[in-house]
Amino acid sequence: MCGIVGFIGKKQAAPVLLDGLAKLEYRGYDSAGLAIRNGNELAEVVKSQGRLKILAEKTDNGNALVGTCGIGHTRWATHGEPSRTNAHPHVSGNCTGTGSGQVESEVVGVHNGIIENFTELREKLLKHGYTFYSQTDTEVVIKLVDYYYKKYTHDPQEAIAKTMVRVRGSYALCLMFKSYPGEIWVARKDSPMIIGIADGETYVASDVPAILKYSRNVYYIGNLEMAKLTEGTATFYNLDGDQIEKELTEIKWNAESAEKGGYEHFMMKEIHEQPRAVADTIHSVIKDNKIDLSSIGLEEEQIKNISQIYIVACGSAYHTGVVTQYVMEDLAKIPVRVELASEFRYRKPLLDKNGLVIVVSQSGETADTLAALRLAKDKGIKTLAIVNVVGSSIAREADNVFYTLAGPEIAVATTKAYSTQLIAGYILAMQFALVRNEIDEDKLAQLITELRTIPQKIEKILEDKERMQWFAAKQVNAQDVFFIGRGIDYAVCLEGSLKMKEISYVHSEAYAAGELKHGTISLIEDGTLVISVLTQSSLYEKTVSNMVECKSRGAYLMGLTTYGHYGIEDTADFTVYIPKTDEHFAASLSVVPLQLMGYYLSVSRGLDVDKPRNLAKSVTVE
Ligand code: F6R
Fold first, then answer.
1. Closest-CA residue to 311 (of 344, 278, 282, 284)
2. Whole-prediction pTM
3. Is the CB of residue 198 less than 8 Å from the CB of residue 228?
């Protein structure tokens, strides 16, 4: 998704903006641009299509643009093709060519999000004599600000407030006004934005890594709020123009955790960070062999009264929900439905008033998940969010929050956030089971002891990662891959298959092993790779039978099971063993070789592991 960085202070702005935008590259983008202002002089805009390094080359790493105030943007096309003309910043007045050069216009700005009623607003502005140069909704919103600015009192705050009332959709807006040098104006609704303050300097960004190097003291700008940024200050306003007081929050992530740290790719670094991320998440709520959910705010009485759980999420976060469903139903005996947020929000769900809606999200900004959360809240259902990014929209709006402690996740394909979401799901299931007398203290202690061993077991799997590297290299020409498993193993197959297709572009499907013969098995041909996951002892024999069915149709079989199940070698052509654990927690181990498989296949095929095509890290539009 698009990225925003803005800076105002004593040092030169352009290098700071380029550096910040580079930190947001992982979000995915197709073009980039900067607008820099030197005191009272007009702003200078430079835009380019493609990688950020083209913009850096064009501006001599920012040195060619003089000025201590500026805004920058990386665009991920929604309205209008990826091009230099459609790249941000956009301006309120007339422009030539692709929109680079000195800006005579009153307003210049960048925008993340989607303006839903942009066609109607464009018509209105055309009638008022505005000309449009790009196909973007952003140009419409910038010109609308200009329209209200000129129509009323030439006051940025009033012009922005009027625009906010008039537009529908989501936005993080970052603007400079020609008549107000030394100021940046920002506004937001449903699109993330933070403001960082350092000594005499102010930063604004759509995501924390962009400014972490410069400031850890941030303000969260709320929905339908705006702010005036000057050197070292931020003044916040609501739609009525009243000033709002805000507290600075300290970000605990350190800058190194947003760097590659010697690994070739962020994804591999993050795979290796899983033992730490999982251990931190466990330790955040398990103390003295007891689960303490007080930081989350879930009361025992509330837990006892839950009639039904709805887990709602997208992509990999949804996959962790599928695992949690099996664990929660088995341990706590609470019925669970797992739903894709994009479906849930539009299917008019009938929700039990004593139900609990659990939304799961790494970014805390996924548009569909946020909408699902709001829908549940509107219906008066209690909500709990499992979120990684502190202060994100989902974290702020949910009734209760279980923070996963994965730290910043940069690679587009999630790994460590997925693993910590699993842990959050297990812990909720264990505590709910205890409170509802489905398990006793001894059983809980036993589960906790086992849970604490997961980090070192993940380490052990990672020690043997070259085996997956070797196997993945052999599969470099694979066309179609099938993942099969039952129960929790099926849930892990969903994730293994997604990891493979999203970064290696190899078509793959995950099937509940028993479902294969209802159609899909006709796709199995000589040499088709079928990866089977078998960690659930009661389902082991059943899945072996399904493997045999595939083999007899020519499939090449990989079996992923726990140490001790050596009989698998009679059926599988290639076997991977993982350490034994309580079977409820098996997904935390079996997913690791599958993450490695996706990673190494992508590397073998020479692809951009961290930034796969067409994908964005945080999907803030529906
Ligand atoms: C896949 C992946 C995505 C995300 C999904 C939800 O590797 O990362 O499928 O899981 O886009 O994102 P969050 O968790 O930020 O809501």
1. 344
2. 0.75
3. no
User: Annotated catalytic, 493?
Assistant: no
**Interval 311-316 mean pLDDT:** 98
Q: Is 151 helix (H, G, I), strand (E, B) or coil?
A: helix
- Tens digit of each residue's pLDDT (9 = 90 or more) over 44-61: 999 999 989 999 999 999
Indicate if 174 belongs to the active site: no
Pocket test for ligand 1, best of 363, 386, 618 (most atoms within 8 A of CB): 363
Closest CA to 374 of 350, 396, 398: 398
- Whether the per-residue pLDDT at 75 is higher than 80: the answer is yes
pLDDT band at 261 (very low <50, low <70, confident <90, very high): low
Kind plus residue range of the DSSP H or E element containing 398:
none
Mean per-residue pLDDT, 179-193: 93
- Asked if the model's pLDDT at residue 383 lies above 70, the reply is yes
Measured CA to CA, the distance from residue 314 to residue 319 in angstroms comes to: 8
- Residues 57, 567: Cα–Cα separation, whole Å: 59
Domain 3-250 matching CATH 3.40.1000.70: the answer reads no
Token digits of residue 185: 């104006």
pLDDT band at 521 (very low <50, low <70, confident <90, very high): confident
CB 155: neighbour CB atoms within 10 A? Answer: 15
CA atoms within 13 A on the CB side of 315: 23
Q: What is the architecture, at CATH level 2, of domain 460-608?
A: 3-Layer(aba) Sandwich (3.40)
207 lines ligand 1 (CB under 6 A): no
Q: Whose CA is nearest to atom 10 of ligand 1?
A: 316
How far, in Å, from the CA of 560 to the mean position of ligand 1? 24
In the chain, where does the domain assigned CATH 3.40.50.10490 lie?
A: 260-452, 460-608
> With bands split at pLDDT 50, 70 and 90, how would you rate the model's confidence at 190?
confident
Beta carbons of 359 and 398 less than 8 angstroms apart = yes
> Which of these is catalytic: 2, 69, 95, 174?
2
Distance CA 93, CA 106 (A): 7
Contact 615, 520 (CB under 8 A): no
Fold of 260-452: Rossmann fold (3.40.50)
- Distance between CA atoms of residues 402 and 400, nearest Å: 7
Distance 374 CA to ligand 1 centre (A): 19
CATH code 3.60.20.10 region(s) in the chain: 3-250
pLDDT for res 24: 87
**Amino acid at position 65, single letter:** L
The residue whose CA has the least distance to atom 8 of ligand 1 is 414
The contacts of residue 348 (CB under 8 Å, 6+ apart) are none
Average pLDDT score over residue span 260-284 = 89
Distance 392 CA to ligand 1 centre (A): 15
Assess contact for 170 and 113: CB atoms under 8 A. yes
- Mean pLDDT of the chain, nearest integer: 93
Distance separating alpha carbons of residues 39 and 615, to the nearest angstrom: 38
Asked if residue 414 has its Cβ within 6 Å of ligand 1, the reply is yes
| SS3 category, 189 | strand
